[in-house]
Specification:
By secondary structure, the protein is α/β, with parallel strands linked by helices. The chain has three helices and seven strands; from the N terminus they run ββββαββαβα.
Length: 183
């Protein structure tokens, strides 16, 4: 079966957003170019790690002599996007993601593949058949957009439930029963 590739070379918008209340939120990576709109679900930790790794790549590029790719140190004001997600129609739930740098276009590249079912009979080792995805989302974004994307993502991830100062677990809106960590 051929792979469906949702490719966004120069997206008009690329953001992480959520639907739901803290503690029950679903995270989405949403990309739009013109009328093409794709939303994929992902985990909170995937979102956080994506932002962290994008910033790491950008910080490494800034350190190159003369900053040849004009990587901004902060988020350019004109690229701040605090708007809600557009209409969400989930394309797939994300399993594996990859992140890279394309020096020919000076863009950060994200690839996301659907979560696949794990066969309990399987030995847990991926073979060539497991690498064949039915869909892939490929997003390339310029360095300024990538910096703005990472900042917004960190803010979205951080807007969840507060953590208990004693046990470190999230505090639900309906209360929290704390169990002290064992010494």
């Amino acid at each position: 079966m051929p792979t469906t590739v949702h490719e966004f070379a120069w997206p008009d918008r690329v953001v992480i957003g959520t639907i739901g209340v803290p503690g029950q939120r679903t995270f989405y990576l949403q990309v739009r170019a013109g009328k093409q709109l794709v939303s994929i679900a992902l985990e909170k930790q995937q979102s956080a790690q994506l932002a962290e790794k994008i910033d790491e790549i950008l910080d490494q590029l800034i350190a190159l002599e003369g900053n040849p790719f004009s990587v901004p140190t902060g988020t350019p004001v004109e690229l701040v996007d605090n708007d809600q997600l557009e209409t969400v129609e989930e394309q797939f739930r994300t399993g594996v993601m990859s992140l890279g740098w394309d020096p020919t276009t000076a863009q950060i590249v994200i690839e996301a593949y659907p979560l696949t079912e794990v066969d309990p009979e399987d030995d847990g080792i991926l073979d060539d058949d497991d690498a064949d995805a039915s869909e892939v989302l490929r997003v390339s974004m310029p360095v300024g957009t990538a910096r703005a994307f990472a900042k917004r993502t960190r803010e979205i991830v951080g807007a969840g439930r507060p953590l208990c100062v004693i046990c470190g677990q999230p505090i639900d809106a309906d209360g929290h029963t704390c169990t002290l960590p064992e010494a």
